[in-house]
Amino acid sequence: MLLEQSLVSQNLAAPSTDSNSLLASLQNANNSSLTDSSSDPLFPAASLLTKSVMQRGPIVAYLDLDRDALSDYQCLVRQQIEFFQAGTQDLESNAQGRNRAIVPNQVGIRCKHCSYLPPKLRARGAFYYPGKLTGIYQAAQNLATHHLCEQCPQVPRNVRKQLLRLKDGKSSAGGGKNYWADGARALGVVESTDDGLRFGGPASLL
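The structure assignment produced for this chain is given below.
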């Protein structure tokens, strides 16, 4: 996968034949940063990842590896989106992308700019709860196209202007559903049998 290829190019041990190689490389980077706080982690997000997962997010979707695999538009989109756990207020809201009731601690994606507002006061399409990791990509594209580019008044003007400019001339380097799924796994998001997505910890760190 593209994400695994990027890791190989940065000299991280990620065997292309192992679907869990991204997570293994990330765990190695975290272990190094935990045992030697004076050294820089091999993976840019590694020094914050374990702490973020333990605290159950929110975690911005963007990874430093993205710039080697994605278009500028997709990179900017990922910088505006974060993974989060459903809290009490979220359980009472109507979320896009769900036919079933949201459950406590279920993981979704949302616009980071209006996340401080109660869910019912946010512009339409501010958050989604994909049922599977492979559903994150399409949910993110919907959130970007309608919410970030058109409807959310909390998105900074310069960010929206740049999103619209890049969207009009965007390349095909969107990564696709597998890349977005791998990126979510790297941030500790896993699939639950019954309740959609959850924070479970990369490579069983929790």
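Interim note for the steering committee: The chain has one domain: 57-204. The chain is about 45% helix and 10% strand.
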